[in-house]
Amino acid sequence: MKQYAPYSLELYDYYKKQGNWDKAISILKKIIKQEPENNYLRDEVIECLTQKYGNFSCFQDALDYSKITQSGRHLTDAIIDFEKCLLYKKDNYVFHKRFGIGKINDVKFNILSIDFFNLNTGEKIPSKKMGIETALKELTILPKEHIWVIMRNQKFSDLKSMALRDVKGTLKTIMNNCANFQLIKKQLTRIIKREVIFNADGILNELEWATWSKEAVKVMETEHDFKIILDNFFDRYAFFEDYLKATGKKDGIYNNILNYFLDVYRTTNNYGEKIACWFLLENTGNSPSESFAEFYSQIPDVVAAFCSIPVQRQKLIKKFLKKITEIEGWPDIYCRLFPYYLGAYIPKILLENKYTDKVMYLFEKYIKEFNIYCWPFVWICGHADEYSFIEFILPKEEEILEIMLSLLKRNNDNTSRYDGKKDNDILLSKYIEQYLFDSNNNKNKLGRFGQYVRDAGREKAYEMLVNLEMVTGLSKSILSYYRTLFNNKYPDITINIKKPKEVIITDKFLATQAGLDRKNKELRNIEYEIKKASSEISEIIGQDEKQAKKPDQTDAKRKFNELSIVGNNLANEISNAQVFDKKNLNLNKVSFGTKVTLRDLDSNQNVVYTILGPFESEPEKNIISHQAQLAVELLGAGVDEVRHFEINGTKYNFKVLSIEASEKV
What we know:
Elements: H1 9-18, H2 21-34, H3 39-53, H4 59-66, H5 75-86, E1 93-96, E2 100-108, E3 111-117, E4 124-131, H6 132-138, E5 139-142, H7 147-153, H8 156-165, H9 167-176, H10 181-192, H11 206-221, H12 223-229, H13 233-247, H14 252-267, H15 271-283, H16 292-297, H17 302-307, H18 314-324, H19 330-337, H20 345-352, H21 356-368, H22 374-382, H23 397-416, H24 423-437, H25 447-455, H26 458-469, H27 476-489, E6 509-511, H28 513-542, H29 550-576, E7 577-579, E8 594-600, E9 605-612, E10 623-625, H30 629-634, E11 642-647, E12 650-661
Helix pairs in contact: 1-2, 2-3, 4-5, 9-10, 10-13, 11-14, 13-14, 13-15, 14-15, 22-24, 23-24, 25-26, 26-27, 28-29
């Protein structure tokens, strides 16, 4: 299920424990944008940076000059300065607004020596000295493939040759060198004004500029080339929005890019892209002939269309949701979208428009269907205090705790079976743990679970603790804390629970009994052939030396070796196979032994896959192994859940329509 708050301290803690410092730092940066004054985050940032860069010779200087340890220093700015300090090395490139492009030729005693070259004036400033504190304020780091660095290091004649020979490559270089679309729009505007390619030194003359700019327009006007320059449709969408803000002109490039979006609007089967095109065309005064209501009536599946809009495009998502309120029956549409846009927004709009009954029905539905809609259930329980009517539909506290523990156990069991846990699964477990055990979200310091164990009777408290002990993947500190709490209250009761071991499947895999029997038969045939090959070799060797034919002996040995390799590999596979027990078949989620009907959100076509094991795999019949990457991406998904993923450069967007038992199990 798509989640709209994917970055949290819980997810950060997970990657920190794994020692994945790049991912941990990346998540921290996103959290800091929301909580820049949180000193806990500062300590965590320093710890992660120390783990990743602590062995760098300039690490301590970077800490000191960035002032990242000082509580009054803006944390985001401090991180930027820290990372810049690490890049102040010999042969790296920088930019100064006054001096131009510079190449660092030496660093001694925290003083940079830089050879500057001003692209506009041609002025050279060799060995300009600059302290690191000044550098942090005035310099921008440039990658070596940046267009300005290329221009600094090449002769104008070479630049002219490059620009005329490869218009597309030149344009692509300029755009791809920019860190964000705000910079892209500025660079593109400069190209139009001839400040980059054309200047007083004559990289391109007037005639050459006219030719080059026409070719650049052709690059922008063709869909294929536009796709090469920007990675995907929504990048192009964001670029065009920024381009309009930057120039405000309806020039040739504007018209050609606009035509691209008109073509997409008319031809695409991806309704996420179609929605983006509709709003873009309306904003540019090129509204499609159909009204929004007419356009909406053509969307075959509003949930699928909504989920195909990337989570990063929050403005577009809010525009779409707001526009939906113009559609007759919009409250029901909001109710359908709620599981895919979890948060206060949809309930807030419904309540503001006096649709309290809809919100109550919505919450009641997902509370009752918690097995299928675990994320909505967890969210509703976690925000119950915000809704006065919730007491009429929420189960008793004991029942909620039991449900939460069962969901936590099921989720941890599913994710622990496979390497490469998904962020969404990690977060679901963390949010459930937060609901159960976090004292910050409960008035009592024991957390909801601890409060129940303390206040419940002997038998109920023991039963709840047994349920907790059966959950795999819990930290030892959580288990120890609640065992101690229980033992302090009931010292006469001994807790003795045999907990099932967690199973991590690496080389092990599941198989049906029929599949395993078929492979065993195949192995017996290979073993028979190996014996025959061995006998042939013995016969040849046993012949009189004059009669023995060396080629025959070589062929027999080669056949024996080949059969032995195949047999050994098959024997290893059989030893790693685990026969699937039909009692464990779970039709609530995509899992081993299920036949799954999916909706391809890009082509709007249905496709059916059967998830079995490597022994039963027949890809041409859409029977795939549970270890195949496609299956791994789908495992754990429930009905109506949408999964977005990429395999070998191909993007997939599937919605689960139904799950049933495979006849092969």
